[in-house]
Design a protein that fits this description.
With 105 residues, this protein is mostly helical. It is 74% helix and 0% strand. It is rod-shaped and about 110 Å long.
Amino acid sequence: MDKRLTLLQKILNGDIFRNEKVAQQYRLLALIGVYIFVSILMGFISEWQYVRIGSLKKELQDARNEELTISSELVNSTRQSAVARSLRENGSTLREPNTPVIVIK
């Protein structure tokens, strides 16, 4: 128990870094620190991308719904009966033709 306590004291005081065996491994400790930093950073980046993908999917669905609404309104407003009614309401003198359309071959 006394060895554990002295080891903890050495770690907290920083005396452990003066040890020759630890001093030889500074590069390895620095590499491990950089690896831990990069791992945490990549976790944050992937989480941010996941949230961004979710918001883009919602935006895409909203755009699809809007396109569907606009196309159905366009289909309804360009029907022959809707165009004729609009012309009558606006007081236009145009009328529907009585003769059939001639197909040119």
